[in-house]
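User: Can you predict the 3D structure for this chain?
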Amino acid sequence: MENSESIKSLTQKVESASTNFEMSNTDLKRNYLIWNISSFNIIAKAISVSKGSFGTGYPFYALDENLQGNLPIIQEQLRYSRQLIRDSERVQNLPWTCKKCLEKKYSTMPDLKKICKPCPNMIDKLKPRKIINRLPDIDMWLVCKDGCMEQAQEELNVLLKRYNMSTSDVDPLSSINDVCEISQMLKDNKLPKKFLPIDVHIIEYSKLKELIEKVPEEIKESIEDERKPYLPIHPKSLRKEWQYDDEAYNFVYDYLAAFTPFNFSPELQQVLYESRRKVISEFTPENLFHILMRSATDSTFRRFQTLELEKTFFDRIKSWNLLERKKNEELKYEEDEFYK
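Assistant: Here is the predicted structure, written as C-alpha coordinates:
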Protein backbone atom coordinates (compact mmCIF):
# COMPACT_ATOMS: atom_id res chain seq x y z
CA MET A 1 0.00 0.00 0.00
CA GLU A 2 1.30 3.44 -0.90
CA ASN A 3 0.64 6.46 1.28
CA SER A 4 -1.19 8.03 -1.63
CA GLU A 5 -3.76 5.24 -1.67
CA SER A 6 -7.23 6.72 -1.31
CA ILE A 7 -9.69 5.54 1.28
CA LYS A 8 -11.95 4.32 -1.53
CA SER A 9 -9.26 2.11 -3.08
CA LEU A 10 -8.41 0.69 0.34
CA THR A 11 -12.01 -0.12 1.20
CA GLN A 12 -12.50 -1.69 -2.23
CA LYS A 13 -9.53 -3.94 -1.46
CA VAL A 14 -10.96 -4.99 1.89
CA GLU A 15 -14.47 -5.43 0.49
CA SER A 16 -13.14 -7.57 -2.36
CA ALA A 17 -11.20 -9.81 0.06
CA SER A 18 -14.22 -10.24 2.35
CA THR A 19 -16.57 -10.94 -0.57
CA ASN A 20 -14.19 -13.42 -2.23
CA PHE A 21 -13.92 -15.25 1.08
CA GLU A 22 -17.69 -15.35 1.56
CA MET A 23 -18.38 -16.50 -2.00
CA SER A 24 -15.88 -19.38 -1.78
CA ASN A 25 -18.29 -21.84 -0.20
CA THR A 26 -16.34 -24.97 -1.19
CA ASP A 27 -15.12 -28.06 0.67
CA LEU A 28 -11.63 -26.63 0.25
CA LYS A 29 -12.65 -23.59 2.28
CA ARG A 30 -14.33 -25.75 4.93
CA ASN A 31 -11.17 -27.87 5.21
CA TYR A 32 -9.11 -24.69 5.46
CA LEU A 33 -11.31 -23.44 8.31
CA ILE A 34 -11.06 -26.83 10.05
CA TRP A 35 -7.26 -26.58 9.78
CA ASN A 36 -7.38 -23.20 11.53
CA ILE A 37 -9.68 -24.52 14.27
CA SER A 38 -7.80 -27.78 14.79
CA SER A 39 -4.49 -25.95 15.04
CA PHE A 40 -5.80 -23.74 17.82
CA ASN A 41 -7.27 -26.75 19.62
CA ILE A 42 -3.87 -28.48 19.51
CA ILE A 43 -2.40 -25.36 21.12
CA ALA A 44 -5.20 -25.19 23.71
CA LYS A 45 -4.71 -28.83 24.65
CA ALA A 46 -0.99 -28.20 25.22
CA ILE A 47 -1.66 -25.44 27.78
CA SER A 48 -0.81 -26.91 31.20
CA VAL A 49 -3.84 -25.29 32.89
CA SER A 50 -6.31 -25.98 30.06
CA LYS A 51 -9.78 -27.36 30.76
CA GLY A 52 -10.83 -27.35 27.11
CA SER A 53 -11.65 -24.90 24.35
CA PHE A 54 -14.66 -23.82 22.31
CA GLY A 55 -15.59 -21.82 19.25
CA THR A 56 -18.23 -19.17 18.62
CA GLY A 57 -19.26 -17.12 15.60
CA TYR A 58 -18.32 -18.13 12.06
CA PRO A 59 -18.06 -20.90 10.88
CA PHE A 60 -19.59 -22.54 13.97
CA TYR A 61 -23.11 -21.19 13.36
CA ALA A 62 -22.91 -22.52 9.80
CA LEU A 63 -21.64 -26.06 10.53
CA ASP A 64 -22.62 -28.80 12.96
CA GLU A 65 -20.59 -29.70 16.06
CA ASN A 66 -18.47 -32.08 13.99
CA LEU A 67 -17.71 -29.18 11.63
CA GLN A 68 -19.61 -30.90 8.85
CA GLY A 69 -22.10 -29.35 6.46
CA ASN A 70 -22.24 -26.92 3.56
CA LEU A 71 -21.09 -23.34 3.96
CA PRO A 72 -23.89 -21.01 2.85
CA ILE A 73 -23.28 -17.66 1.19
CA ILE A 74 -24.52 -15.17 3.78
CA GLN A 75 -26.06 -12.12 2.12
CA GLU A 76 -25.79 -10.05 5.31
CA GLN A 77 -22.01 -10.48 5.24
CA LEU A 78 -21.90 -9.28 1.63
CA ARG A 79 -24.10 -6.29 2.53
CA TYR A 80 -21.92 -5.50 5.54
CA SER A 81 -18.80 -5.45 3.36
CA ARG A 82 -20.44 -3.31 0.66
CA GLN A 83 -21.42 -0.77 3.31
CA LEU A 84 -17.74 -0.03 3.75
CA ILE A 85 -17.59 1.17 0.13
CA ARG A 86 -20.60 3.42 0.64
CA ASP A 87 -19.08 4.88 3.78
CA SER A 88 -15.89 5.71 1.90
CA GLU A 89 -17.61 7.49 -1.01
CA ARG A 90 -18.07 10.71 0.96
CA VAL A 91 -14.27 11.04 1.32
CA GLN A 92 -13.24 8.92 -1.65
CA ASN A 93 -10.43 11.12 -2.96
CA LEU A 94 -8.65 11.56 0.36
CA PRO A 95 -5.64 9.45 1.33
CA TRP A 96 -6.07 7.01 4.20
CA THR A 97 -4.13 9.01 6.79
CA CYS A 98 -4.27 6.11 9.28
CA LYS A 99 -1.73 4.17 7.21
CA LYS A 100 1.10 6.62 7.83
CA CYS A 101 0.18 6.81 11.50
CA LEU A 102 0.16 3.02 11.89
CA GLU A 103 3.49 2.62 10.09
CA LYS A 104 5.23 5.23 12.23
CA LYS A 105 3.61 4.83 15.64
CA TYR A 106 1.86 1.48 15.95
CA SER A 107 4.83 -0.41 17.38
CA THR A 108 4.59 1.77 20.50
CA MET A 109 0.80 2.14 20.55
CA PRO A 110 -1.70 0.22 22.67
CA ASP A 111 -4.40 -1.61 20.70
CA LEU A 112 -6.63 -0.04 18.05
CA LYS A 113 -9.59 0.56 20.36
CA LYS A 114 -7.60 2.65 22.84
CA ILE A 115 -5.82 4.90 20.34
CA CYS A 116 -7.83 4.93 17.13
CA LYS A 117 -11.35 5.07 18.54
CA PRO A 118 -11.06 8.59 20.06
CA CYS A 119 -8.82 9.95 17.27
CA PRO A 120 -10.48 12.95 15.49
CA ASN A 121 -8.50 12.67 12.23
CA MET A 122 -10.70 10.11 10.47
CA ILE A 123 -14.44 9.55 10.42
CA ASP A 124 -15.45 6.81 12.82
CA LYS A 125 -16.72 4.31 10.24
CA LEU A 126 -13.38 4.33 8.41
CA LYS A 127 -10.99 3.96 11.32
CA PRO A 128 -8.67 0.92 11.27
CA ARG A 129 -10.71 -1.14 13.78
CA LYS A 130 -13.91 -0.67 11.73
CA ILE A 131 -12.12 -1.60 8.51
CA ILE A 132 -10.43 -4.76 9.78
CA ASN A 133 -13.73 -5.84 11.35
CA ARG A 134 -14.81 -6.60 7.78
CA LEU A 135 -12.07 -9.19 7.48
CA PRO A 136 -12.93 -12.81 8.25
CA ASP A 137 -11.46 -14.22 11.44
CA ILE A 138 -12.13 -17.09 13.85
CA ASP A 139 -13.31 -16.73 17.46
CA MET A 140 -11.68 -19.31 19.73
CA TRP A 141 -11.84 -19.58 23.50
CA LEU A 142 -9.55 -21.29 25.99
CA VAL A 143 -11.06 -22.54 29.26
CA CYS A 144 -8.46 -22.44 32.03
CA LYS A 145 -8.30 -23.63 35.62
CA ASP A 146 -9.54 -21.13 38.18
CA GLY A 147 -6.88 -18.63 39.26
CA CYS A 148 -4.60 -19.51 36.33
CA MET A 149 -5.46 -16.74 33.86
CA GLU A 150 -1.97 -15.22 33.75
CA GLN A 151 -0.27 -18.58 33.35
CA ALA A 152 -2.69 -19.50 30.54
CA GLN A 153 -2.09 -16.30 28.62
CA GLU A 154 1.70 -16.56 28.97
CA GLU A 155 1.73 -20.12 27.62
CA LEU A 156 -0.74 -19.20 24.91
CA ASN A 157 1.43 -16.26 23.78
CA VAL A 158 4.39 -18.59 23.25
CA LEU A 159 2.44 -21.22 21.32
CA LEU A 160 0.51 -18.77 19.13
CA LYS A 161 3.78 -17.16 18.13
CA ARG A 162 5.30 -20.58 17.39
CA TYR A 163 2.35 -21.46 15.14
CA ASN A 164 2.34 -18.03 13.44
CA MET A 165 -1.20 -17.35 14.62
CA SER A 166 -2.08 -13.77 15.58
CA THR A 167 -4.89 -11.28 16.00
CA SER A 168 -5.49 -8.58 13.42
CA ASP A 169 -4.54 -5.98 16.08
CA VAL A 170 -0.91 -7.12 16.11
CA ASP A 171 -0.27 -5.70 12.63
CA PRO A 172 -3.44 -4.32 10.97
CA LEU A 173 -1.78 -3.54 7.63
CA SER A 174 -0.31 -7.02 7.31
CA SER A 175 -3.65 -8.55 8.32
CA ILE A 176 -5.36 -6.80 5.42
CA ASN A 177 -2.74 -8.04 2.96
CA ASP A 178 -2.77 -11.58 4.39
CA VAL A 179 -6.55 -11.91 4.13
CA CYS A 180 -6.46 -10.56 0.58
CA GLU A 181 -3.97 -13.32 -0.27
CA ILE A 182 -5.99 -16.01 1.56
CA SER A 183 -9.24 -14.99 -0.11
CA GLN A 184 -7.69 -14.95 -3.58
CA MET A 185 -6.18 -18.41 -3.08
CA LEU A 186 -9.54 -19.83 -1.98
CA LYS A 187 -11.19 -18.19 -4.98
CA ASP A 188 -8.57 -19.89 -7.18
CA ASN A 189 -9.27 -23.22 -5.41
CA LYS A 190 -5.85 -23.27 -3.76
CA LEU A 191 -5.25 -24.09 -0.09
CA PRO A 192 -3.74 -21.12 1.78
CA LYS A 193 -0.69 -21.72 3.98
CA LYS A 194 -1.39 -18.81 6.32
CA PHE A 195 -3.89 -18.75 9.17
CA LEU A 196 -6.78 -16.34 9.29
CA PRO A 197 -6.60 -13.68 12.01
CA ILE A 198 -7.73 -15.26 15.25
CA ASP A 199 -9.86 -13.64 17.94
CA VAL A 200 -8.65 -15.33 21.13
CA HIS A 201 -10.33 -15.27 24.55
CA ILE A 202 -9.65 -16.93 27.91
CA ILE A 203 -12.28 -17.68 30.54
CA GLU A 204 -11.95 -19.46 33.86
CA TYR A 205 -13.59 -22.83 34.34
CA SER A 206 -15.99 -21.88 37.15
CA LYS A 207 -17.22 -18.78 35.30
CA LEU A 208 -18.04 -20.74 32.16
CA LYS A 209 -19.62 -23.54 34.20
CA GLU A 210 -21.85 -21.03 35.99
CA LEU A 211 -22.95 -19.43 32.73
CA ILE A 212 -23.81 -22.77 31.13
CA GLU A 213 -25.86 -23.74 34.18
CA LYS A 214 -27.74 -20.42 34.17
CA VAL A 215 -28.92 -20.53 30.55
CA PRO A 216 -32.15 -22.56 31.01
CA GLU A 217 -33.38 -20.36 33.87
CA GLU A 218 -32.39 -17.14 32.10
CA ILE A 219 -34.36 -18.16 28.99
CA LYS A 220 -37.36 -19.03 31.14
CA GLU A 221 -37.25 -15.74 33.07
CA SER A 222 -36.77 -13.67 29.92
CA ILE A 223 -39.95 -15.18 28.45
CA GLU A 224 -41.89 -14.52 31.66
CA ASP A 225 -40.58 -10.93 31.87
CA GLU A 226 -40.96 -10.32 28.10
CA ARG A 227 -37.39 -9.10 27.74
CA LYS A 228 -34.23 -9.97 25.85
CA PRO A 229 -32.31 -12.85 27.50
CA TYR A 230 -28.90 -11.73 28.66
CA LEU A 231 -26.00 -13.41 30.43
CA PRO A 232 -22.80 -11.36 30.12
CA ILE A 233 -19.62 -13.28 29.40
CA HIS A 234 -16.57 -11.09 29.90
CA PRO A 235 -13.37 -12.94 28.96
CA LYS A 236 -9.82 -11.72 28.78
CA SER A 237 -9.16 -11.15 25.09
CA LEU A 238 -5.98 -10.88 23.08
CA ARG A 239 -5.91 -7.66 21.12
CA LYS A 240 -2.40 -6.26 20.84
CA GLU A 241 -1.96 -7.33 24.45
CA TRP A 242 -4.31 -9.22 26.79
CA GLN A 243 -7.16 -7.09 28.11
CA TYR A 244 -10.75 -7.05 29.27
CA ASP A 245 -12.86 -5.30 26.63
CA ASP A 246 -15.31 -2.54 27.50
CA GLU A 247 -18.36 -4.61 26.54
CA ALA A 248 -19.32 -8.16 27.45
CA TYR A 249 -20.72 -10.72 24.99
CA ASN A 250 -24.24 -12.11 25.39
CA PHE A 251 -23.65 -15.76 26.26
CA VAL A 252 -27.28 -16.77 25.60
CA TYR A 253 -26.89 -15.87 21.93
CA ASP A 254 -23.57 -17.71 21.58
CA TYR A 255 -24.92 -20.76 23.47
CA LEU A 256 -27.83 -21.11 21.05
CA ALA A 257 -26.20 -19.98 17.82
CA ALA A 258 -22.75 -21.47 17.70
CA PHE A 259 -21.23 -22.73 20.98
CA THR A 260 -19.01 -25.65 19.92
CA PRO A 261 -16.93 -27.39 22.61
CA PHE A 262 -13.60 -29.14 22.15
CA ASN A 263 -11.74 -31.35 24.64
CA PHE A 264 -13.89 -30.34 27.61
CA SER A 265 -13.13 -32.02 30.91
CA PRO A 266 -15.69 -34.78 31.68
CA GLU A 267 -17.29 -32.66 34.39
CA LEU A 268 -17.72 -29.62 32.16
CA GLN A 269 -19.03 -31.77 29.31
CA GLN A 270 -21.64 -33.18 31.71
CA VAL A 271 -22.62 -29.67 32.82
CA LEU A 272 -23.17 -28.69 29.18
CA TYR A 273 -25.17 -31.85 28.53
CA GLU A 274 -27.44 -31.23 31.55
CA SER A 275 -27.96 -27.61 30.55
CA ARG A 276 -28.92 -28.57 26.99
CA ARG A 277 -31.18 -31.32 28.32
CA LYS A 278 -33.11 -28.78 30.39
CA VAL A 279 -33.35 -26.36 27.47
CA ILE A 280 -34.79 -28.91 25.02
CA SER A 281 -37.15 -30.38 27.62
CA GLU A 282 -38.67 -26.98 28.46
CA PHE A 283 -38.70 -25.22 25.09
CA THR A 284 -39.58 -26.19 21.54
CA PRO A 285 -37.07 -25.59 18.72
CA GLU A 286 -39.38 -22.81 17.47
CA ASN A 287 -39.32 -21.18 20.93
CA LEU A 288 -35.53 -21.37 20.95
CA PHE A 289 -35.21 -19.84 17.50
CA HIS A 290 -37.40 -16.96 18.69
CA ILE A 291 -35.13 -16.58 21.73
CA LEU A 292 -32.07 -16.65 19.48
CA MET A 293 -33.44 -13.85 17.34
CA ARG A 294 -34.48 -11.84 20.38
CA SER A 295 -30.96 -12.10 21.84
CA ALA A 296 -29.26 -11.21 18.54
CA THR A 297 -27.77 -7.85 17.65
CA ASP A 298 -29.10 -6.08 14.55
CA SER A 299 -26.39 -7.57 12.32
CA THR A 300 -26.69 -11.11 13.68
CA PHE A 301 -30.48 -10.86 13.40
CA ARG A 302 -30.12 -10.07 9.69
CA ARG A 303 -27.55 -12.83 9.30
CA PHE A 304 -30.04 -15.45 10.47
CA GLN A 305 -32.46 -14.39 7.74
CA THR A 306 -30.33 -16.77 5.66
CA LEU A 307 -32.50 -19.87 5.32
CA GLU A 308 -29.53 -22.23 5.42
CA LEU A 309 -28.47 -20.82 8.78
CA GLU A 310 -31.98 -21.22 10.14
CA LYS A 311 -31.96 -24.86 9.04
CA THR A 312 -28.55 -25.38 10.64
CA PHE A 313 -29.91 -23.97 13.89
CA PHE A 314 -32.82 -26.43 13.93
CA ASP A 315 -30.46 -29.29 13.08
CA ARG A 316 -28.27 -28.23 16.00
CA ILE A 317 -31.21 -28.34 18.41
CA LYS A 318 -32.28 -31.68 16.93
CA SER A 319 -28.80 -33.06 17.67
CA TRP A 320 -29.29 -32.13 21.34
CA ASN A 321 -32.49 -34.21 21.30
CA LEU A 322 -30.63 -37.13 19.79
CA LEU A 323 -28.03 -36.91 22.54
CA GLU A 324 -30.84 -36.97 25.09
CA ARG A 325 -32.30 -40.10 23.52
CA LYS A 326 -28.89 -41.77 23.39
CA LYS A 327 -28.31 -40.97 27.06
CA ASN A 328 -31.72 -42.39 28.00
CA GLU A 329 -30.99 -45.55 26.03
CA GLU A 330 -27.67 -45.94 27.83
CA LEU A 331 -29.33 -45.49 31.22
CA LYS A 332 -32.06 -47.98 30.29
CA TYR A 333 -29.40 -50.48 29.21
CA GLU A 334 -27.52 -50.05 32.49
CA GLU A 335 -30.75 -50.51 34.45
CA ASP A 336 -31.64 -53.69 32.51
CA GLU A 337 -28.18 -55.09 33.10
CA PHE A 338 -28.44 -54.35 36.80
CA TYR A 339 -31.70 -56.30 37.15
CA LYS A 340 -30.56 -59.29 35.10
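Confidence is low (pLDDT under 50) at residues 328-340. The beta strands are 50-56, 138-144, 198-204, 232-233, 236-238, 242-244, 249-250, 260-262.
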